[in-house]
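Quick log. Single chain, no ligands specified.
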Amino acid sequence: MSHSQSQTEPVSPRFFPLAGGLLFLMITLSVLAGLTDALPSWWAGLCGWLAALLLLSRVRRMQLLQSGVMLLVGVSCLLWGLSEADAITLWLKALSANQALVTMLAAVSFLRLVAASQMQGERSEPQGVKAFWKTLLGVHLFGAVINISAMVIMAERLSQRQPLTMTQAATLSRGFGTAALWSPFFAAMGVALTNSPGAHLFILALAGLPIAVCALWIGGSDMAKDAQIEAFKGYPLDLSALWIPSLLALFIMIGHFLLPTVPVLTLISLVSILLPLLMLARISIQQRGTSHGLSAYRHHILHVIPNIGSELLLFLSAGVLAVGIGALVSTTHFSLGLTVFSAWHACGLLVISLLLSIMGVHPVITIATAGGLLANLDTSPDLLAMTFLMCWSGGVIGSPLSGMHLTLAGRFNVSNYTLFMRNRLFSIKFLLLQIIFLHLYEQASLF
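-> predicted structure:
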């Protein structure tokens, strides 16, 4: 999922079941639309928007403001673009924009029903350098599958006996944020694939993994030199439990290979809702017909997935913005003066995105805007998508106002500004690493 979930402003329980039902209907309709052309995708988009309206009070003020601005700009651009486009087609396109992305966002939340239970290993509290590396790797791999839930579970365990330290918070931040570079279950991947049509999941995952490994090594090595690292209290994670994340990733890759015409986001959503359902049904059968497992699935639909209210509105609004900008560019024949999108342009976009993220602008806004402006440009879709993944990863780690850092600040009393300062040198090294990689990729693609 995205990197944040609002924990403020409780919503009346009566809205949760209805919103949850609409979101599950959205998932079902979106998957069917992805598997067959018989069902229009705007039906799923409509369900998503209705759920977003029910969950408005769940949205933080900053994200409500950002979503409102995106909608205002997007709708204004759509109205301008109506002069040269069919009105109904354009509005339905805006309605369905990013519906596959928000479907994936809601669907992957079901994975915590089975994956979160695996995050229970040895009960003793590990300490020292080995515990540090184990925690860094654990939050990265589990975060790649169940997103911010993994980071919250770890942070809650680490803060049981004493407040979360800045070193622990930075470990979780760097480990979790770098997963956006390659994970098919991260909202970042959905945003990248949506805004860069033609990009390939295999290429993005295989290209993102080595840079994530390098980033983890750089960020981990810096922290491992800390004189206090021997006192580091780590998460008691049994790494043998990583078979579920590995199995999920394998299913997606195999499914994409066997069904190349089915959108990747559809495959991810389908696996994310079916695998937990099958595993929980098996548990119910093993427990002599009890419905405990299936009750957990139903409870998740009605009371848990509505918690994505902030991300739901943000990503749907970003979709309207992207469609609106695309319509405006097409109508006015606006041009950035570029003929190609090279590694140097990608680096410039990275720097701009990082600066905007530090000021509180969500990466999805930058990506949606860039996607709309570059839609008619002769670009390498994989290079553009990799740039978008880097914008997301660098933005959530480097910004004191990212949802990840605000979650740590709000729930665990960690100063997000202090955490920003702790990560600032790593963010610069991370940016340089990304710039080097983009140039290496561009050179390799010439052969």
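The CA atoms of residues 156 and 412 lie 8 Å apart.
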